[in-house]
Amino acid sequence: MYRGSPASLTLWCTSAHIYMYNERVVNRLISSPILNSKKSILLLGPRQAGKSTLIQSLNPDLTIQLADQMEFFTFSANPNELRTRIETENPRTVFIDEVQRLPGILNTVQSLLDTPQAKKRGLKFYLTGSSARKLKRGGANLLPGRVLNFHLGPLVSSEIKYHADTDKLLSKGGLPEVYLEKDEKLSQHLLRSYVSNYIQEEIKAEALVRNLEAFTRFTQVAIQQAGLFIDYSKMAKQAKVSRHSLDRFYEIFEDTLIGQRVWPFEPCLEKADLIKHPKFYLFDNGVFNAVMGNFKVSPDRLGILAEQLIFTQILHSSWASLKDVKISTFRTRGGLEVDFIVELDGIVFGIEVKGSSDIQDHDARSLVQFKDYYPKCQETWVLHMGSKSRKIGNVWAHPWQVGLQKMGI
After folding, report:
1. Residue 9 has pLDDT above 50, yes or no
2. Residue 76 has pLDDT above 50, yes or no
3. pLDDT for 32-55, tens place per residue?
4. Would you list the DSSP string of 229-285?
């Protein structure tokens, strides 16, 4: 089972500092909560999701870019550098980008926030990072009680007024720069570069794995099997890595916000004799396609692309709406399967995903049977890639964006 924390921010930019969609600004939903927060914030998200751009759009008084090597060396060499700059420039808002590169700086942040002067003038920090793992490994002080945590993912349907381009999201994904780029070749180049840079920077440069070759083999196999139940023994053989390493490698994916495992629905775990292995999904279809070297939404690929799209949109839309969400799997050893069980605002949704728009009566069968195992399920929906809603008995079949809107995300 995956438990998502509330989160996700908004307001997007290119070099002109504004991302445009049909000549309109695309407002990320949580920009306002972050701007209006009286507390400092820690914004986590995968690279190129737009964390830095978003915070810069809030016009902080002082910006510290730890991604810049010279800035990083300056602060590494002088633990008092942050305090000196704040005392010199007297800012009310301070932006520290890629804070995971120097976790110890958070101790100084806490010390500054606790001073009477800071409290009097309302000193506020915007902290961003792309690796919770790096913060953990660095023994970072995560400032409990002083900082609110947010997450930022790719663009979600509600941020485009529920008129997102489904074909684009299936092939290019929702990273803002990629989604809004009209040149198809450039979009694909950006995504290939993203994958290459992730392996080199996020993993190798931060020394998250000792054996980069083994992790690279694992990455290819794990992504090829996205959306399937993980067979750890089989995967270990295919990737030529130890069974023991697999959990650690999946944790790296999760801590660097590249993907998530989705676990069986706990209330039915024993009663329904569920398969206990998790599934795995990447955070973005464009990144998935870049790793696979295939950007075509062909019939043989539509199923996994649609399933991954629905998972990421529900997860990131919930974060963007500041709602707590749990997404689980459901498959019995007898073969009954429902793609996702979503718990949102006290409502349990059973959701079956269909890549096509041609929805037949039998597509609702597994959802009807699921309610025999879990009668407390309030909503059973088929979410599909088409444009029309229809009802099959007590099961609604909705276009996926209509479904998200009805869920309030």
Report:
1. no
2. yes
3. 899 999 999 999 998 889 899 999
4. BP-HHHHHHHHT--HHHHHHHHHHHHHTTSEEEE-B-GGGTTTTTB--PPEEEES-H
Q: Which one-letter DSSP state was computed for residue 92?
A: S
Contact 332, 274 (CB under 8 A): yes
Is residue 261 within 8 Å of 280, Cβ to Cβ? Answer: yes
What are the backbone angles phi and psi of residue 175, rounded to the nearest 5°?
-60, 125
Cα 121 to its chain centre, rounded Å, is 34
User: CB-hemisphere CA count at 13 Å for 121?
Assistant: 15
- Global pTM? 0.88
C-alpha span between 94 and 287 (Å, rounded): 31
Share of the chain above pLDDT 90, in %: 68
- Which of 3-7, 231-235, 316-320 is least confident? 3-7
Determine contact, residues 203/215, Cβ cutoff 8 Å. Answer: yes
Domain boundaries, given as residue ranges, for the chain: 31-151, 159-407
Unique residue bearing structure tokens 């990421």: 312
Helix (H) or strand (E) holding 129: strand 124-129
Question: Domain spanning 31-151: which superfamily?
Answer: P-loop containing nucleotide triphosphate hydrolases (3.40.50.300)
Of 92, 64, 91, the C-alpha closest to 78 is: 64
Distance of CA 345 to the CA centre of its chain: 19
Q: By mean pLDDT, which of 54-68, 165-179, 206-220 is the weakest?
A: 206-220
- 299-320 helix and 400-407 helix, angle to the nearest 10 degrees: 20
φ and ψ at residue 334, rounded to 5 degrees: -80, -5
Q: Which helix (H) or strand (E) holds 340?
A: strand 337-344
Nearest to 8 by CA among 39, 38, 41, 57: 41
Q: How far apart are the first and last CA of the chain?
A: 20
User: Helices (H), strands (E): how many in the chain?
Assistant: 17, 16
Contact 25, 18 (CB under 8 A): yes
Q: What does each C-alpha distance from 50 to 201, 311, 317 come to in angstroms? A: 17, 20, 16
Q: Which residue from 362, 339, 359, 341 is spatially nearest to 350, judged by alpha carbons?
A: 341
pLDDT at 177 over 80: yes
- Amino acid identity, residue 63? T
Residues shown for the chain: 409
74, with CB counted inside 10 A (0-12, 13-18, 19+), is middle
